[in-house]
Amino acid sequence: MLQPLLEAVGLTVGYGRHAVLEPVSASLPAGRLVCLLGANGSSKSTLLRTLSGLQLPLAGEIRLLQQPISRLAAQDRAKRLALVLTDRVSTASMQGAELVALGRHPYTGWSGRLS
Description:
This protein is of the alpha+beta class. Helices cover 19% and strands 28% of the residues. The N and C termini lie far apart (40 Å).
């Protein structure tokens, strides 16, 4: 069996004290395509935000490359994990280089500029 890239153990996700999905355990190996299907409002985005570290779990643990995701600095997490949600980013006044730079944010220096 392949070593898991992302792993959730006993994960409960939700808002405040209100759980919307519980408990979830999953092991996602590197190099595999995974599809998450469900009806509108079935907590797919909440689960993905929690798995990516953008939202705290109510219970359980998430591991990225065998390390608890909660112990990774945001910049280190962003270098290893990317997530595209359905929220739209206004790109109307952006130049091409600025749009590309959005994906390079974890690699900028303290000034936020690309070298």
